[in-house]
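note to self: the first set is below, dont mix up w the second
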Amino acid sequence: MDDSRDIFGDSPPWDNKDEEDAAPSAAELEAAGQSSMFGEPEPAPPEPEPTAAELEAAGQSAMFGEAPAAAPQPAVAPAPASPPAGTPSQPYRVLARKYRPQTFGELIGQEAMVQTLANAIKRDRLAHAFLMTGVRGVGKTSTARLIAKALNCIGPDGQGGPTIDPCGQCEPCLAIAEGRHIDVIEMDAASHTGVDDVREIIEAVRYAAVSARYKIYIIDEVHMLSRNAFNALLKTLEEPPAHVKFLFATTEVDKLPVTVLSRCQRFDLRRIPTPMLAEHFARVCGKEGVEAEEEALAMVAAAAEGSVRDGLSILDQAIAHADLDGEGKVRADKVRDMLGLSDKSVQRKLLAAILDGKGAELLDLVAHQFALGVEPIAMLRGLMELTHRVAVAQVSGSAADAPSSEEREALEGWAKALRAGQLHRLWQLLLKGHDEVKSAPDPLVAAQMALLRIMHAADMPDPGSLVKKLEELASRAPAAAPAGEGGAAAPGAPSAAAPTAIAPRWEALVDDVEHLGQPVAANVMRMQVRVVELAPGVLRYTQPPGFNEDISGQLRSALGEATGDRWQVERVNAEGAPTLVEQAEAKKAADTQAVRGAPLVEATLAAFPGAELIEDDRPAAIGGGSRNWRR
């Protein structure tokens, strides 16, 4: 027991029974133990004034419930306590997290879904699985947490039931808001994609909720689950225990199996309209004590593209950007510079330069905007937006949504001055230019060329106006004289005295000869035979100028083989009917003359001097039609 002497002093109390009256007090023993543990070889000698050891002993006795023998006031001030939560030393929370909706009343733009849930809760017709889908930042996960609150809220008095207006004061509401409720399990499907993760859920749903009314599983980005994981979840999702609710959130609902969709009550969360977003951001700025221009908030709302989270992130950045100049006000020009947007007034100047045909001014404006950091693609996008607003003002009759009177006057002026066809053509040209700039190696050059092309095409008439003009010219053109009236016949046309009744019979004989496998003889008959007389077994013919060879024997042989009769073929010096080739050329010339004599064609040729009428000799398409569209 000698080792105990180093711990408790000179000798342990039980070894010296005679000195019980002089034994040290509990405070002194504790002080001696503390001193020995911290390396001091001996306890401090007693003094009239309280020593540090006695003060330490008094503190230890107080901690363990023993009243100290003497409790003098300490001479040294106690150490300062840690700063309470909520002080400026706490890390900054971004606006997207700070202003996350905590009640359904704070959830903007989803009135239809809130009304459906409210009616379901009132009528006790709650589904066992809910699916929230929509673009990013519209409140899918927040809605799932709100539903968890609504189902598990017990009210401030602890006697409440499911409600669409959770109190936010009871323990379930507070725990769910802080993400620490044991019966509300959130799982990120993007990082838990396998069947093993789903198997854990399947095993856990068999047990009742620990402290809440319902055990709720919130699975975010549920479309990331694997096919096997979905299949493993199907049976539990279809027939879960009465105390379990599933809440799914996804941005790509088309990737979910139909078997999962059919087992859920689906809510499609809408994009938040730009005016509603601007109003929401104005309220946030008011709570934050930040001044913001209306136009600046409109820019932030437009850049958010219907997403509250994206808009709050941009607004957070805009507030930080505004603080740099010392004013602390979110101004439109600062937001425009931060987002790289084109100035509205410069957009109007660009459109005016395009419509007025001022190329030099147009290039100067583009160069100035590019020097300020505005991307060429943003210039084209701004012009497209402006053109769309002009078209809408033209249809509605006014531009009431314009933020300023100057912009309203400009939009309404263009809406009255421009035709609908011009606006639509301008939109198509801007859209084509946007695609070119997007894929060009030098976006600035591509934007300049696209805008110059649009400027040169701005004053061209649209197709509807062109057709109307041609119809007016056609109505004023003199009527074409009938073919053959008061003029010579077309070259190569058959004379009036020609026996036209012979042509069908002769053409049929030529076809018979060709079908019997004598294409050479058939071509000779088409090109060199002007029929003078054609009777059964008799053919008298003459030849066109330039053909002098005797073809009687060839014709006799071919006709005899085709008909099986003996033919008398004789070449005579007389006027005969045109050859089949001459007849086809005459018909073609007559058709061309008829087309040129049409009033609409004459008007077109008059409107476009030097234009030529091009004949399409390509073969017809397979299966019918007048054009071979496969070429």
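second set (the one i keep forgetting abt)
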Amino acid sequence: MIKYSKSIRRSTTLAAGILSIVLTVVPAAIYFVMAFSHMTGVLETEGEINARVVGALVVANPKMWEFEELRLKELLARRSTETAERRVLYDLKGQVIAESTNRMLPPLLSKSFPVYDAGHQVANLEVSCSLAPTLMVTALLFLVGGTAGWFTFFRLRTVPLRAIEDAYRGLKQSEEKYRSVYESLNEGLALYRTVAGSGGYLDMVLADVNPAAVSVFGFGRDDIGKSILQVQGGLFAPVREALRGAPAEVSLELTQEGAGRVFTVNAFPMGDGMVATLLEDVTEKKRSAEQLENLAYYDSLTGLLNRRMLLDRMEHTLGIAQREGLKMATLFFDLNGFKPINDTMGHEAGDQILIEVGRRLKSAVRKKDTLARLGGDEFVVVATLDTEDNASCIAQNLLRKLAPVYEVGGREVFVGASIGISIYPDDGATPETLLKNADIAMYNAKKPGIEFCFYSAQMNQKLQERTKLEFELWMALEREEFFLEYQPIVDARTGRIAAVEALVRWMSPERGRVMPDAFIPLAESTGIILPLGEWVLKTACTKLRQWLDAGGLPLRMSVNISGCQFMRSELCRLVEEAAEQSGVDLALLELELTETCLIKDVEETATKLWRLKGLNVSIGIDDFGTGYSSLQYLKNFPIDHLKIDRAFIRNVCELPDERAIVDAIIGIAKAMELHVIAEGVETLEQAEYLRHRGCDELQGYYYHRPLSEERLLEVLREERERLGIAAGAAGGGEAGVKDVAGGNVEGSGGGVPAPPV
């Protein structure tokens, strides 16, 4: 180190000296030479020009030029550059004839030029310029170069010494860091020295170990100097065998018998006959890896395969079925009745049922079959078959296994299942296709009386049609293809139109006129009913306001609200927005709800209904008698109207049971002071019977079919003309609403009026 340091010092001193001299002298010298050459050239040029100019004056005035001092000075003062110069014209005797000069600092650089007249020299022109600026800049450059040279010399002189010191310091720090890392490593580090052993083999003798190797891996200080075959009972002996003929690093995984511990050993030669072995206890890592594998490929609740592993197994089974010419069945399970149990008894009870279902299915399938849980209450069984009949037997056997009751929380519950079956190769050639088709078949098995169902192409076609219809519904909303029709509701005593029910229709460019029963169920299941219901509500209110502004009589506008819209949307806010946008009096708005949506969450339902009543909106129960009819909600909910379902009206005059139901509904409604409306009235006999039983309003084809807006306005105008009511007398106040609803119109008869022509 010292020898190399002196050599570096001498070399850098010489190089620094030369470089500093060059930096000091060369720039100043170069500048002075270039500036001096430039000044000399300028002087020669200016002198020759002025000599010629003066010569021209001499030629023009051969006898008098010596006395033209002013003109000579003017000629001498002419310059093509801005450089300060001194110009003096001497005669041959050396006397000054004319002079033009600037103030200049010495020393001066001068040049003399002869002036000729007819080939004879008659005078001399001397041109001078100052060298002082050039010398000053040269001196400045010399100083700057000297400073740079000194700095360069200093840096080049000191850098090698600092480099030597830094290298020595870095070496020392590296050694300290190595020792610190060596001592603090969590992994065990054992150093071996290779020595010649018996039989010509190289043996490895332990040279050093770090504290982790002692405390974690059981090395002892007394092991130093022992052969690797003797340390730890020869546990690490395979390292010596692995290093033979392998100059690079080798990695091994060793298991310590009895203790159940797993080690990884990385051995690498270090040179000079030394070998380092890095030891790591990976027992916990191995266990964690196994747990992660279970999480990645197995369901954590039931221990069955998950979707990822199922697809892998299906690929394997498909390969076997293809090679051996077998069929493969994919049975897709979905539990029936599981969601109510999960909702009412809690998720813990649901988990217990899923675990029991998994246990029963596991006991029912063959060892070569694959059983998996996809999530929720969905399970899949994959089995190879000889014939498709085997799939039916498997499905029936699995259903029998699932049939017995389940004991959860001290209660007995029943859980069934629906199974969809797809067969390879008839229904698909990939796991994804088979699963999808089995899922489609499973939904078809949900129909009453069906427990399992085989996939068919018609099912997929129906699913595609359903998907297409859903897309068309969304597009219909954007394209404004929906419109409203209105079915009048007449007063049973007077025959006057008391209200109209807004009915949504769809005019599709592809399908033509589409009735609600073809798209409303899909709209409710997909959530399209929410924006559609909002559009119906706001459009109905806007139309009603337009009719009133045009002079129409006040009448109620009845709007159907689906259960999905009632439970999931902010209905009160929508009603307020509709009233604000249209300006309609909410006393003219009636919302019709079904019994089913009222009983889902009684407390929340009551809260929403009372908020609607606070807005002065009428609330009616549609299709009363077909759902969960209960006097309790009629008592506790703010209901204004009951609409008897058309199913009871159809045969009310023929069947005593139907008459008894209708009479009971009307009697209950009257006892509770509720308004009763009968829908589906199609004959005079039905109308007369309902009127005599006290039904307040009637709706049906006997009176009016659903009408377009234009036709409805014509009917209302004809009715107003028939009753002799002037358009200007039609009021929009609350009194008008009560007159229409109650039928208090003078001159109306007590019998059932004939239907309009």
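remember for set 2: The mean pLDDT is 81.
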